[in-house]
User: Fold this.
Amino acid sequence: MRLSFTLPLPPTSNHRLIPAKGSGRLITSPKMREWKKEAEDTLFRQRDWGNPTITGRVAVTLVITWPDRRKRDIDGPVKPVLDALVKAGILKDDSLIKELAVIVEDEIGEGVVGIEIDIID
Assistant:
């Protein structure tokens, strides 16, 4: 079985956590909370509800298209995207991923800016 999804890019690592007032703890930023909600909603809309939650080992490919030529780390979007797949009920757990490929498109801002996700079991 092969499943495909498209998500917007998550906020960069510098914009995911903010200090909580007065406690010194870090909490999820409003920008990250908004992305998580949007990602979950997007995955729910794109999901084929005839397919149950994946409970076996899978291979995942993430194809990233950046909006511009700023310098970015290839691994920045990976964790939030995998967590979103679990939160949306597509994967039972991201520990089921046996192979992970992350590809950055050469064409900046061409087509869909964001992340294309392919899951193959």
